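To fix ideas, we quote verbatim one protein's residues and C-alpha coordinates.
>
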Amino acid sequence: MSVNIRGMDEVLAKMESKLGSRAVAKYSNEALNIAGRYMAANLKSAVGSYRDTGATVNEVTVGKARLKGGVRTIKVGWDGGGSKQRYRLVHLNEFGYTRFGRTYGPRGMGKVQNAYDSSREPMKALEKHELEKLL
Protein backbone atom coordinates (compact mmCIF):
# COMPACT_ATOMS: atom_id res chain seq x y z
CA MET A 1 0.00 0.00 0.00
CA SER A 2 1.19 3.50 -0.72
CA VAL A 3 -0.30 6.95 -0.49
CA ASN A 4 0.84 9.73 -2.80
CA ILE A 5 0.58 13.23 -1.42
CA ARG A 6 0.45 15.91 -4.09
CA GLY A 7 1.28 19.52 -3.32
CA MET A 8 3.69 18.62 -0.56
CA ASP A 9 6.69 19.04 -2.86
CA GLU A 10 6.35 22.82 -2.81
CA VAL A 11 5.96 22.87 0.96
CA LEU A 12 9.01 20.65 1.43
CA ALA A 13 11.05 22.74 -1.05
CA LYS A 14 10.25 25.92 0.90
CA MET A 15 11.12 24.20 4.15
CA GLU A 16 14.39 22.93 2.71
CA SER A 17 15.40 26.40 1.52
CA LYS A 18 14.75 27.84 4.99
CA LEU A 19 15.84 25.01 7.29
CA GLY A 20 18.15 22.71 5.34
CA SER A 21 17.74 19.16 4.10
CA ARG A 22 18.52 17.40 7.40
CA ALA A 23 15.87 19.33 9.32
CA VAL A 24 13.31 18.70 6.58
CA ALA A 25 14.10 14.97 6.66
CA LYS A 26 13.67 14.94 10.44
CA TYR A 27 10.31 16.74 10.30
CA SER A 28 9.08 14.61 7.40
CA ASN A 29 9.98 11.45 9.28
CA GLU A 30 8.13 12.65 12.38
CA ALA A 31 5.02 13.46 10.35
CA LEU A 32 5.19 10.08 8.59
CA ASN A 33 5.58 8.24 11.90
CA ILE A 34 2.48 9.95 13.28
CA ALA A 35 0.51 9.15 10.12
CA GLY A 36 1.72 5.53 10.32
CA ARG A 37 0.52 5.18 13.89
CA TYR A 38 -2.88 6.56 12.81
CA MET A 39 -3.06 4.00 10.00
CA ALA A 40 -2.09 1.18 12.37
CA ALA A 41 -4.86 2.15 14.79
CA ASN A 42 -7.41 2.12 11.96
CA LEU A 43 -6.08 -1.20 10.71
CA LYS A 44 -6.30 -2.74 14.18
CA SER A 45 -9.92 -1.66 14.56
CA ALA A 46 -10.76 -3.00 11.09
CA VAL A 47 -9.24 -6.45 11.60
CA GLY A 48 -10.60 -6.53 15.14
CA SER A 49 -14.03 -7.16 13.67
CA TYR A 50 -13.10 -10.78 12.94
CA ARG A 51 -10.86 -11.43 15.91
CA ASP A 52 -10.80 -14.82 17.54
CA THR A 53 -7.60 -15.06 19.57
CA GLY A 54 -6.56 -11.45 18.93
CA ALA A 55 -3.25 -12.47 17.33
CA THR A 56 -4.01 -10.67 14.06
CA VAL A 57 -4.66 -7.42 15.91
CA ASN A 58 -1.70 -7.79 18.28
CA GLU A 59 0.82 -8.38 15.50
CA VAL A 60 0.08 -5.15 13.57
CA THR A 61 3.31 -3.14 13.51
CA VAL A 62 4.51 0.22 12.25
CA GLY A 63 8.01 0.56 10.86
CA LYS A 64 10.18 3.65 10.94
CA ALA A 65 10.06 6.27 8.21
CA ARG A 66 12.80 5.62 5.66
CA LEU A 67 14.14 7.11 2.46
CA LYS A 68 13.67 4.47 -0.23
CA GLY A 69 14.38 5.29 -3.87
CA GLY A 70 14.26 9.02 -3.15
CA VAL A 71 10.82 8.76 -1.53
CA ARG A 72 10.08 8.77 2.20
CA THR A 73 8.03 5.71 3.10
CA ILE A 74 6.73 3.90 6.15
CA LYS A 75 5.54 0.30 6.43
CA VAL A 76 2.43 -0.73 8.28
CA GLY A 77 1.85 -4.47 8.39
CA TRP A 78 2.12 -7.64 10.41
CA ASP A 79 5.12 -8.71 12.45
CA GLY A 80 6.25 -12.24 11.75
CA GLY A 81 7.96 -12.56 15.12
CA GLY A 82 4.83 -13.42 17.08
CA SER A 83 3.93 -16.95 18.00
CA LYS A 84 0.94 -17.02 15.66
CA GLN A 85 2.71 -15.47 12.60
CA ARG A 86 -0.45 -13.91 11.22
CA TYR A 87 1.32 -12.29 8.29
CA ARG A 88 1.01 -15.68 6.57
CA LEU A 89 -2.78 -15.79 7.00
CA VAL A 90 -3.97 -12.21 6.57
CA HIS A 91 -4.33 -12.51 2.79
CA LEU A 92 -6.74 -15.44 3.24
CA ASN A 93 -9.09 -13.27 5.29
CA GLU A 94 -8.63 -10.33 2.93
CA PHE A 95 -9.23 -12.09 -0.41
CA GLY A 96 -10.98 -15.31 0.52
CA TYR A 97 -9.83 -18.75 -0.56
CA THR A 98 -10.85 -21.88 -2.44
CA ARG A 99 -10.80 -25.29 -0.83
CA PHE A 100 -11.83 -28.50 -2.60
CA GLY A 101 -13.50 -26.48 -5.37
CA ARG A 102 -15.60 -24.37 -3.04
CA THR A 103 -14.92 -20.64 -2.63
CA TYR A 104 -15.02 -19.19 0.86
CA GLY A 105 -15.54 -15.53 1.70
CA PRO A 106 -14.60 -15.03 5.36
CA ARG A 107 -15.98 -12.33 7.66
CA GLY A 108 -12.86 -10.23 7.21
CA MET A 109 -12.98 -10.16 3.43
CA GLY A 110 -11.94 -6.69 2.22
CA LYS A 111 -11.46 -5.19 5.70
CA VAL A 112 -7.79 -4.24 5.19
CA GLN A 113 -8.49 -2.52 1.87
CA ASN A 114 -11.46 -0.67 3.37
CA ALA A 115 -9.30 0.52 6.26
CA TYR A 116 -6.67 1.72 3.79
CA ASP A 117 -9.20 3.50 1.57
CA SER A 118 -10.93 5.21 4.50
CA SER A 119 -7.60 6.32 6.02
CA ARG A 120 -6.00 7.85 2.91
CA GLU A 121 -7.43 11.36 3.09
CA PRO A 122 -7.26 11.71 6.90
CA MET A 123 -3.63 10.51 6.79
CA LYS A 124 -2.75 13.14 4.19
CA ALA A 125 -4.43 15.85 6.25
CA LEU A 126 -2.75 14.63 9.44
CA GLU A 127 0.68 14.62 7.82
CA LYS A 128 0.14 18.10 6.40
CA HIS A 129 -1.04 19.37 9.79
CA GLU A 130 1.98 17.85 11.54
CA LEU A 131 4.39 19.42 9.04
CA GLU A 132 2.73 22.81 9.52
CA LYS A 133 2.83 22.38 13.30
CA LEU A 134 6.52 21.47 13.25
CA LEU A 135 7.30 24.67 11.38
